[in-house]
Design a protein that fits this description.
Layout: H1 4-26, E1 34-38, H2 44-52, E2 57-60, H3 63-72, E3 79-82, H4 91-95, E4 100-104, H5 107-120, E5 124-130, H6 150-159, E6 163-170, H7 182-199, E7 205-207, H8 214-220, E8 224-227, H9 229-232
Parallel strand pairs: 1-2, 1-8, 2-3, 3-4, 4-5, 5-6, 6-7
Helix pairs in contact: 1-8, 7-8
Bound molecules: pyridoxal-5'-phosphate (PLP).
Length: about 240
């Protein structure tokens, strides 16, 4: 048995140093950036250790893995974020544990989330996932709405009972004009967030940046970074 707690503590400290340094470089306060640890593919025992180490936000991208993990950790003071592509038939399960769904990208999903949130009497935070590489009307390959579709979808979320419009989320595109240009991509997301806040001032969350590009996200103004590998290690297989 390796000392998993020691390993996670060391990784977490390293990520914490990176976030602090990025904040300092950008002239931002450390409190302006929230770390969300992406625990996908890792067991509930790791989530428990992370909680002991002071982590308060975790994220998952597949309901079939997340649901049992969240149930096993329901005694912990954690906020659960759902960050994967979400099918409407999984909405009932996801609303059972998710505090925030970061991958809202179509009207049908808004309707389903609202209906279920109302049914169980919960408020679910929603971020609009933006596909920066999608055409003006298309949706991204990995989910997300094109920039031109944000306003309409945000309006739907804001008007939907049981849902709270939190802001925007993106994953830096791997291909197209933003490939290898994470900071430019994240700055574009910030501009879109500025536009959104003209009509929805409270929708101030900007979720961007992962293990490889959290510095660029913090530099651009992200309020939430989603870090998996740098805390938990390289995921076995796909994930
Ligand atoms: C897996 C995942 C992350 C974390 O990625 P790492 O490179 O492991 O830090 C962040 N956001 C989303 C949407 C993910 O699916």
């Amino acid at each position: 048995m390796t000392d998993r707690k020691g390993e996670l503590a060391a990784n977490l400290a390293q990520v914490e140093r990176r976030i602090t340094a990025a904040c300092t470089a950008a002239g931002r306060k450390r409190e302006e950036v929230t770390l969300i640890v992406v625990t996908k593919t890792y067991p509930a025992s790791d989530v428990r250790i992370l909680s002991e180490l002071g982590v308060r936000h975790v994220a998952e991208n597949r309901d079939q893995d997340a649901a049992p993990k969240a149930a096993a950790c329901s005694d912990l003071p954690l906020s659960w974020h759902f960050v994967g592509q979400l099918q409407t038939n999984k909405v009932r399960s996801v609303v059972g544990y998710a505090d925030v769904v970061q991958s809202v990208d179509r009207a049908r999903l808004v309707t389903a989330l609202s209906k279920e949130a109302e049914r169980v009497g919960r408020e679910v935070g929603c971020l609009i996932q933006v596909a920066l590489d999608a055409g003006e009307s298309a949706r991204g390959e990995r989910g997300g709405v094109a920039p031109g579709g944000i306003a309409e979808l945000a309006g739907l979320v804001a008007a939907a009972p049981g849902l709270r419009l939190g802001g925007l989320m993106t994953v830096a595109p791997l291909t197209g004009e933003y490939a290898g240009q994470q900071q430019v991509a994240f700055e574009r997301l910030m501009d879109l967030s500025t536009d959104l806040r003209r009509t929805h001032p409270a929708a101030n969350m900007v979720s961007a940046g992962m293990s490889a590009d959290l510095e660029q996200a913090v530099a651009a103004g992200a309020t939430h970074v989603r870090v998996g590998t740098a805390v938990l290690g390289v995921r076995p297989g796909l994930g």
